[in-house]
Write a structure and sequence with these properties.
Elements: H1 2-13, H2 22-36, H3 38-50, H4 55-78, E1 90-93, H5 95-108, H6 110-127, H7 131-134, H8 140-163, H9 171-190, H10 193-197, H11 199-214, H12 246-269, H13 276-296, E2 302-305, H14 309-315, H15 320-335, H16 337-343, H17 348-372, H18 381-397, H19 407-413, H20 416-434
Antiparallel strand pairs: 1-2
Helix pairs in contact: 2-15, 3-4, 3-5, 3-11, 3-17, 4-13, 4-15, 4-16, 5-6, 5-12, 6-12, 6-13, 8-17, 8-18, 8-20, 9-11, 9-17, 11-17, 12-13, 12-20, 18-20
Length: 450
């Protein structure tokens, strides 16, 4: 009898499963919300600005994203059957995934982008039985190329929020964006702790205040009050196009590497022995299911985030019930229509300035991943990275390069992210086996921070 009940007793004694009194749970959960709130807000504004959505539709989309963030945090923290890692995870709209969603929406229409999200989430669910094989296709070199190309491509998209679709910006819009960037940088440099982690949100607030007080922009909240549910299929019925969806399909596979690293890191942070073969598929299932729901409400892929892990290390609070509490708070905020409708009135140039910071950081993350891939020495990694980046940058530097190709080829080669990632995967497989100076693949532990 003792041997049967001992494991359960051990599990209940683990810090990650500890119950937290309500008087402590609320402020701890609110702290997590403050850290992550900038990501969904800035992401929604980027989508709304790029797709020229009216304030009411923007408010509805923001409500949907906040609700999904809350539902994702609850699912990952509490777990249902084999869905959710039962770790203190939160969930956010993926910055890179949003970039690809917007790229597809601009090239093929928002309904096709919605269909691409649904296809990518379904693909992630389908490949989980082959997890150990798929994750090997995306070592740090491939991930670095992918993330760097996404960051570079989206800096261009963010700039269009400032300049307008014709690329010729008014001086006051450029000035407002620059002041927003300056406020964001100042907040990041001067503040500490949770406030520093919300520097993007602080920069947006400061930019909006400057816009209203100086006349550089206008703050126009959407009409509405009380509580309301977000609109289902805001862009209309989804359209399914496998070729157009290829950027998000490839990206959904690359997320398995990131999920692996974050799951290992989170397990170590809460004092649980990492078990990737068990926990990673559970985390990925929750990501995929919330992303499927997100596609129905007009968002891109939703992903688990490592942003809250630093709070766990800083405070020493390891309970997954704290992030579950954060999920409840996000659901409440998502249903509070006045909040989302007020936030929807932020000037477009302010959103563009914040987006420039966000996507510049994503590009730098790609550089850091490439640095961890160790491109020095006699190996073929430097050649692989060079050729992959060339293939990825060509569509940006010479947009008409593939104009004479068939449509399916233009879709693949014309997407820098897809062209660069596929080149990196193929060359890594070929040169890694037959090239000189072959390097041993990096162990799983080296991918923890990805």
């Amino acid at each position: 009898m003792t041997s049967i009940h001992a494991p359960a007793a051990t599990r209940s004694a683990e810090p990650v499963d500890a119950r937290v009194p309500l008087r402590r749970l609320v402020p701890l959960a609110a702290q997590h919300v403050l850290v992550l709130i900038a990501a969904p807000v800035s992401t929604v504004f980027l989508v709304a600005g790029t797709l020229r959505m009216p304030p009411g539709a923007t408010a509805s989309l923001l409500s949907a994203v906040l609700l999904l963030c809350g539902a994702g945090a609850l699912l990952q923290s509490l777990g249902v059957w084999r869905i959710g890692g039962r770790l203190p995870f939160v969930m956010l709209p993926g910055g890179a995934a949003t970039a690809l969603f917007l790229q597809i929406a601009q090239d093929h229409g928002a309904p096709t982008a919605t269909g691409s999200v649904l296809l990518a989430a379904a693909l992630l669910l389908a490949v989980l039985p082959l997890y150990t094989r798929v994750v090997r296709l995306f070592p740090p070199l491939v991930m670095g190329v992918t993330v760097l190309l996404i960051g570079v491509a989206m800096i261009r998209v963010a700039a269009r929020l400032v300049t307008g679709p014709d690329g010729r910006g008014e001086p006051r819009a450029v000035l407002l964006a620059a002041l927003t960037v300056a406020a964001t940088v100042a907040a990041y440099v001067l503040l500490r702790g949770v406030w520093r982690q919300t520097s993007v949100l602080i920069g947006m607030a400061a930019g909006t205040v400057v816009a209203v007080t100086t006349g550089l922009g206008a703050f126009t909240p959407a009409a509405g009050a009380g509580f309301a549910l977000p609109a289902l299929l805001p862009f209309g019925p989804p359209r399914f196009d496998l070729v157009a969806a290829l950027p998000l399909l490839v990206f959904s596979l690359t997320t398995l590497t990131e999920i692996t690293g974050q799951t290992v890191l989170n397990s170590e942070t809460v004092g649980r022995t990492p078990t990737p073969e068990r926990d990673v598929p559970r985390v990925a299932r929750a990501d995929a299911l919330v992303s499927l729901a997100g596609g129905l409400f007009g968002t891109s892929l939703m992903v688990t985030s490592a942003e809250n892990i630093g709070i766990g290390r800083l405070t020493g609070v390891r309970s997954r019930f704290v992030t579950a509490g954060a999920g409840v708070l996000l659901v409440v905020v998502g249903l509070a229509t006045p909040v989302s409708r007020a936030l929807a009135g932020i000037p477009e140039a302010v959103v563009g300035g914040s987006a420039l910071v966000v996507y510049a950081v994503i590009a730098v993350m790609g550089v850091e991943m490439l640095r961890r891939a160790d491109l020095s020495g006699p190996g073929t990694g430097n050649l692989t990275a060079a050729l992959a980046l060339t293939m990825g940058l060509l569509p940006l530097l010479s947009p008409e390069l593939y104009a004479g190709f068939p449509e399916w080829a233009r879709t693949i080669l014309g997407s820098g992210v897809v062209a660069g990632t596929l080149t990196a995967v193929v060359l890594t497989a070929l040169l890694g086996r037959s090239g000189p100076g072959r390097r041993v693949p990096a162990p799983a532990q080296s991918r923890v921070r990805e």
